[in-house]
Amino acid sequence: ENKQTPFDMIGEETLSELVDRFYELVSDDPNLSPIFPDDLTETARKQKQFLTQFLGGPSLYSREHGHPMLRARHMPFPITPTRAESWLNCMKSALDETDVDLAVKEYIFERLTYTAKHMINTNE
Ligand code: HEM
């Protein structure tokens, strides 16, 4: 079977640009920047690996870091509903700037919306 995955449709290079732009927006966001490291190089590298597999590409994240267990990995950080919304707004802006088929963007955003809500682990 050679079905095209969302990863195939966005492509490695555009996914990499998307993630880099996303973390630029995160570092400028007053709700998010306080809980992220100052240097987002390693965070972006892991996020590229994660999103590659999340969108049906090779399992780059799991190969290096094991099972994602994203909710557990986020427990050290206070993720409020407001922070989840800010995270999604940064992702929306980054996606809007990328040159990808609209249906693919909408599909990605919908899945990330679900995942972001699942990360909320504290009230405001
Ligand atoms: C790591 C915040 C949602 C995927 C992190 C880190 C923070 C964070 C502070 C640690 C960064 C570091 O130390 O390098 C948030 C907030 C979210 C959110 C506030 C709002 C809901 C998501 C979502 C995904 C995601 C929806 C899925 C695409 C990741 C990954 C890592 C990470 C893959 C790296 C984990 C590792 O260290 O191996 N996030 N995150 N996050 N986040 Fe999120």
Automatic annotation (TrEMBL):
Q: Which domain of life is it from?
A: Bacteria
The protein's UniProt keywords, in alphabetical order, are: Heme, Iron, Metal-binding, Transport
Show the Pfam families listed in the entry: Bac_globin
PANTHER family reported in the protein's UniProt record? TWO-ON-TWO HEMOGLOBIN-3
The UniProt family comment states: Belongs to the truncated hemoglobin family. Group II subfamily.
In its UniProt entry, what is this protein called? Globin
Source organism per UniProt: Evansella alkalicola
